Amino acid sequence: MRQPLVVGNWKMHGSRDEAAKLVGGLIQKLGGCQAEIVLCPPFVFLADVADLLSKSSVGLGSQDVATQVQGAFTGEVAAEMVADIGCRYVIVGHSERRTLFGESDALVAEKVAATLRAGLVPIVCVGETAQQRDAGITEEVIAGQLNTVFERLGGADEFVQSRAVVAYEPVWAIGTGVTAEPQQVVQVHQFIRGLLGKLGAASRVLYGGSVKPENAAELFELEDVDGGLIGGASLDIDSFSAICAAAD
Ligand code: PEP
């Protein structure tokens, strides 16, 4: 039985004060939640949020990591550093990192390995652009993204056994208000489950892309959907707590 997981990706939003208010409000509302909840604030707020979450069951994650352990890598943050702060998860290969910062499948695979090296759980984002979907190559794109990670780790079984999470995030649905149709979500999640191989039933596969309180329950009830990666709606206490409740 896979415990549902809901991850809030704050991206580059908020101030220190707003982060504290958001966490305070969420802790009050998420008390009885059965799903696992994880917040991923910007790096600079991780330590504050770790303190605020220390007596709650809500977990902490970072939005990215470097591949290196330490050294002369100005501006980078190692997986070991975010582990030291109290993170349990790392979002890796978000489409904004892939498209805006040129992260290749190979670099994403290195970041997954770096995350595991530090004892953290990677949330590996995969998904097709609108053009790729229109060209009929959605599965090819996702297979390429995931297989590069599997090869880096030694195989799909190693990926599953590491407890890594997959987040299917169609690029055209992220931050656009357009949500994938249920049958599109089911089709891709089943395809991902197949790629995960014989042990794949153990892995959590999340959906991300314009999840809101109005559509969360319908999405989370779908076969092979084990929760969500939430962007915009994770910045609002009422919206995010309603989405978390929908995953219960
Ligand atoms: C995301 O950033 O991963 C995301 C899914 O964003 P949104 O929920 O705003 O579409």
Q: What's the gist of this structure?
A:
The chain is of the alpha/beta class. The protein has 11 helices and 8 strands. It has a single domain (5-235), classed as Aldolase class I (TIM Barrel), CATH 3.20.20.
Description:
Helix 7 (138-153) runs parallel beside helix 9 (182-195). The chain has helices spanning 16-29, 46-53, 79-85, 95-100, 105-117, 130-134, 138-153, 156-161, 182-195, 213-220, 237-246, and strands at residues 5-9, 36-40, 59-62, 89-92, 121-126, 165-168, 205-208, 227-230. The two termini are 13 Å apart. It is built from 11 helices and 8 strands. By secondary structure, the protein is α/β, with parallel strands linked by helices. It has an 8-stranded parallel beta barrel, surrounded by 6 helices. It has one domain (5-235): Aldolase class I (TIM Barrel), CATH 3.20.20. Bound molecules: phosphoenolpyruvate. Residues 9, 94, 169, 174-175, 208-211, 229-233 line the site of phosphoenolpyruvate. The site of phosphoenolpyruvate (PEP) has 14 residues, from strand 8.
